[in-house]
Amino acid sequence: MINKTVKNAREAVADIPSNCMLMMGGFGLTGIPENCISALLERDITGLTIVSNNAGVDDFGIGLLLKKRMVKKMISSYVGENAEFERQLLSGELEVDLIPQGTLAERVRAGGAGIPAFYTPAGVGTEVAEGKESREFYGKMYLLESWLKADFSIIKAWKGDTAGNLIFKGTARNFNPMMAAAGKICIAEVEELVEAGELNPNEIHTPGIYVQRIFQGKDYEKRIEQRTVSK
After folding, report:
1. Could you point out which of 134, 139, 154, 195 has its C-alpha 20 to 30 Å from the C-alpha of 222?
2. Residues 120-130 pLDDT 10s
């Protein structure tokens, strides 16, 4: 069985060039590839297009890449926690495609499944529909949306093996698995890395066929955007 492990995050992202398209897994700040983001910050690259559910916060996650002016365009659905993102958007420094969250998820899933386009009712009658083909099905209007694919998918899982099989935990499953399939090269960082064959096949969420590089991460902060506790 092929061993897909690399030494660390630096090695995993070493060949990511400027002006490429990246998918970044995670839901809010949950399940984001913290180690790979830190390694990218050490690279002298710019012009990145990033597909992500969110834009991180000012001092964590994708927000750090934005702060360093490494990102040319964001394709996202939720960006409300990042003041630097807002500043760059309003000043014209950053291109942004805001997409309904379900549509974003399905466009990524379609890219991994090899489905070039699909119809959805989300966005009909809004600015989202501008310039897009619409069609009526069973008395209801739908928009034609296209797939999303990337040069690299950078994701984070709870547990993985040396063959690239992955298990996610909680809301980290919202975008990470589908992004794994939609990137030409998928880089996975995991909290625990085991030998191939040690994972229960019935518990695997992403088969290793979708993963090209895997390594065990470290020092995860696992921040929460808005912490709410009972009084």
Report:
1. 195
2. 999 999 999 99
Distance CA 127, CA 4 (A): 43
DSSP H or E run through 34: helix 34-41
Task: Confirm if 29 and 56 have CB atoms less than 8 A apart.
Answer: yes
Question: What residues contact residue 153 under an 8 Å CB cut-off, 6+ apart?
Answer: 22, 23, 25, 179, 180, 181, 182, 183, 185, 186, 187
Report field, pTM of the whole predicted structure over 0.90: yes
* Number of domains observed in the structure of the chain: 1
Check if the beta carbon of residue 153 is closer than 8 Å to that of residue 23. Answer: yes
Does a structural domain hold residue 125? no
Please, are residues 151 and 21 in contact by the beta-carbon 8 Å criterion? Answer: yes
- The domain in which residue 186 lies consists of 9-115+149-216
Q: pLDDT grade, residue 93 (50/70/90)?
A: very high
